[in-house]
Specification:
This protein is mainly beta and 719 residues long. The protein has eight helices and 40 strands. Helix 3 packs across helix 5 and helix 5 packs antiparallel against helix 8. The N and C termini lie far apart (63 Å).
Length: 719
């Protein structure tokens, strides 16, 4: 490899803040002797000025240059650019089968410090124009050392006359220009363009919708789409869980309470150049992208990048003109359907949905499946704004729950929180419950903007939005009657808008101004009378755990405790039902039976006497994961939950479902339909009328009766 550099570092810059840590000032030049050929000027004043590093005339890649904008770096460092003859990585079978041309040397950009820049930089490099037909679309890729594969880079402009290509990047790495001959040479044949990666928006999107906050009131589509594409390629297999299952705090079916996810989205948007997608639209519009040829270049770039990188690609769609966009969305494209002639993508406004837009080389792009029509389309790789290193640092911080949050914390000052159960507040009665709290205003938020506390009770929004006092930062609301005396889930969400959050698809979306949220429980004292219901002791204290077999007698159990049941003490997701969170509450849950076969039946049982105190309640959650061999119903794996008043010999609750039982309509399928799951089900029974009686709770989970298939259940309680 041939390098050209200038070892003299620039003085350290002062007073520049950056969201990515330890970025360095880039200085340097091209040289092939000890004598400098050219060098970047030193910074003047407290900021780092813009500068350019260029290849000298006569070098094998003459015309290559790196244009670093002002304040893209913050500390003393050198930049070095060089080249290698070969591609940084061999292409895979899909690309080699289609045919390809390596159009350039591999441009190597290095730094003596961090690899990330503080802003997007422009890089120009020469390519061999003799190898590229006039109507063909070249692409730029770089070697992602984190994934060990190629990753996409967005092209800003192509100078076909002089054989130069300019692209946008945010980090030092190895870059190459190639052309994949997909679709043939000459007129594009769309029937040959079908391609896809394994990205699936039903599971690989964020669970939350695109939203606005006090930091980014306009939304975060670029950060969301970029992070989703990166996570799917770089971390999904490592984590063992799709993105949509992560960071579901509080109520798992509500997105309003997912503050870690919201902070991750906000930081992903802010961690790089925050307007990269808008720059891509402006560049496209300035170059006259509202025409078929330009749209075909965008489409062919995406198709080639899907083939070589095997990851979802970012496309930006804009309504309006350069600098005056009335609508601009970044989406993650993961497939081109050559039969339907439509791109499939993840639109952050519609999580979990497949959205499509038509394209063919004759008519260009059309109206998307959400009936949205755009004027300009552009390719905008997330690598133009971030490196994998930056995104991984966000992933690590999100996994830790963002100990240092951009959002303020809500403090509940009344009623009183239980010291033995953080997040739970007890009151004497279930009526006229007054809740008071405070929420600081972030220093970077609008100091005069009104703020409102939106209240949700067990997931249902209270119609009234309660004002937050501008001077004291305090709020107060009264719950006329707790929906559940045994424990009402309360969520407080503070924003700068009085409107309700309803989601993009509802037509009444809560647009922005998010500040903070807090979720907690309010319950009437002296409600619970069963022991160790949440299994937080880490064992089966208070319970009878046993295992017997089909054809045997549960009155004479074979194993006590059941050797197939256990306490789940590592928070995560079920290994088969991969979106079933276990534990649901706290740090422990019980699993009854397991996935092994061989005719096992396991039970978990406890009895207790109903106290005479006010409003005693039996409250718990259960779920089931059952293999579905499609035997006769009486031979299928099953789950059974029974609450019985033993004193009066009456059932208070009884549910029994065999695998894929048609009497339950909410089955979820896994492993190609071989396994079925019932997600967490709440059981809440008011039993005050049975004071003094003995109540028994029994959960039973079973394999199939023929010995070849397994099944198990879970129990958990929010104590």
């Amino acid at each position: 490899m041939k390098y050209f550099n200038n070892p003299r570092a620039l003085p350290r810059a002062l007073g520049i803040a950056a969201l990515v840590a330890a970025l360095g000032v880039l200085s340097g030049c091209w040289e092939d002797t000890d004598k400098p050929v050219s060098e970047a000027p030193p910074p003047a004043g407290p900021t780092v000025p813009a500068f350019t590093v260029e290849a000298p005339a006569g070098s094998p890649i003459a015309g290559a240059k790196v244009e670093v904008p002002a304040d893209a770096v913050v500390a003393a460092d050198n930049i070095t650019i060089g080249y290698e003859d070969a591609l940084p990585l061999a292409v895979d079978t899909d690309v080699s089968t289609a045919g390809y041309e390596q159009l350039s040397k591999t441009l190597v950009i290095t730094r003596t410090g961090e690899s990330d820049f503080g802003q997007t930089v422009d890089v120009t490099m020469p390519y061999d124009k003799s190898k590229l037909p006039d109507d063909a679309t070249p692409i730029v890729v770089y070697l992602d050392e984190d994934t060990g594969g190629y990753s996409p880079i967005a092209v800003k402009s192509i100078d076909r006359a002089n054989g130069k290509i300019t692209f946008l990047t945010s980090h030092a790495s190895k870059y190459a220009v190639i052309w994949i001959k997909v679709g043939g040479i000459g007129p594009i044949d769309p029937s040959k363009l079908g391609t896809s990666v394994s990205f699936d928006p039903t599971v690989d999107s964020f669970f939350v919708h695109n939203f606005g906050s006090y930091e980014e009131p306009g939304g975060n589509s670029f950060g969301m789409a970029g992070y989703a594409a990166w996570y799917h390629r770089a971390r999904k297999s490592v984590k063992g869980a799709p993105l949509s299952t992560l960071y579901r705090e509080g109520n798992p079916v509500l997105e309003e309470d997912d503050q870690v996810a919201r902070e991750l989205i906000l930081r992903a948007y802010q961690a790089g150049d925050q307007k990269t997608h808008i720059k891509a639209l402006n560049n496209a519009a300035t170059a006259g992208a509202a025409n078929i040829a330009a749209e075909n270049n965008v489409a062919m770039t995406i198709i080639q990048q899907l083939m070589i990188t095997k990851q979802a690609q970012l496309m930006v769609m804009g309504k309006g003109t350069a600098g005056t966009w009335t609508d601009a969305q970044a989406v993650a494209v993961y497939a081109y359907d050559s039969v339907a002639q439509r791109f499939r993508f993840y639109d952050t406004r519609f999580p979990g949905e497949v959205v499509t837009v038509p394209w063919n080389p004759t008519t260009g792009f059309g109206v998307d499946s959400k009936n949205k029509e755009y004027d300009v389309f552009a390719f905008a790789s997330f690598n133009s704004a971030y490196s994998s290193k930056t995104l991984n640092s966000l992933y690590v911080a999100a996994e830790a729950g963002f100990p240092t949050s951009l959002y303020p914390k809500i403090a509940i000052t009344a009623p009183t929180e239980l010291s033995t159960s953080p997040g739970t507040f007890e009151v004497a009665a279930d009526d006229s419950v007054t809740v008071r709290g405070t929420v600081p205003r972030p220093a970077s938020a609008n100091p005069s903007a009104p703020r409102y506390a939106h209240v949700y009770l067990n997931g249902t929004r209270v119609p009234t939005a309660y004002p937050v006092d501008g001077a004291s930062n305090a709020f107060e609301f009264t719950i006329a009657k707790l929906p559940s005396a045994a424990g009402t889930d309360v969520m407080v969400l503070v924003s700068e808008t009085e409107k309700a959050y309803a989601g993009w698809g509802s037509g009444a979306a809560w647009a922005g101004g998010f500040h903070a949220f807090k979720q907690f429980r309010v319950r009437v004292a002296n409600q619970f009378f069963f022991q160790n219901m949440g299994l937080e002791t880490g064992d089966f204290t208070g319970w009878l755990s046993e295992r017997h077999s089909w054809g045997g007698s549960s009155a004479a159990p074979e194993v006590v405790p059941s050797d197939k049941s256990e306490i789940i003490a590592t928070p995560g997701f079920d290994p088969i039902a991969t979106d079933l969170q276990v534990p649901l509450f706290g740090t422990k849950a019980a699993r009854i039976n397991n996935e092994d076969n061989n005719e096992h039946i396991s039970t978990l049982t406890q009895t207790a006497v109903v106290p005479s105190g006010k409003n005693p309640v039996l409250r718990f959650y259960w779920s089931a994961v059952l293999e579905d061999p499609q035997h006769d119903p009486e031979d299928q794996p099953y789950i059974e939950i029974v609450v019985q008043n033993k004193t009066k010999n009456i059932d208070l609750y009884r549910k029994r479902f065999f695998a894929n039982d048609p009497s339950y309509s909410g089955w979820l399928s896994y492993q190609g339909g071989d396994w079925k799951s019932i997600p967490w089900q709440l059981v809440e029974l008011a039993v005050a009328e049975y004071a003094g009686d003995t109540i028994e709770l029994k959960i039973e989970a079973a394999d199939c009766a023929l010995g070849g298939h397994g099944g198990y259940g879970y129990l958990d309680v929010d104590e």
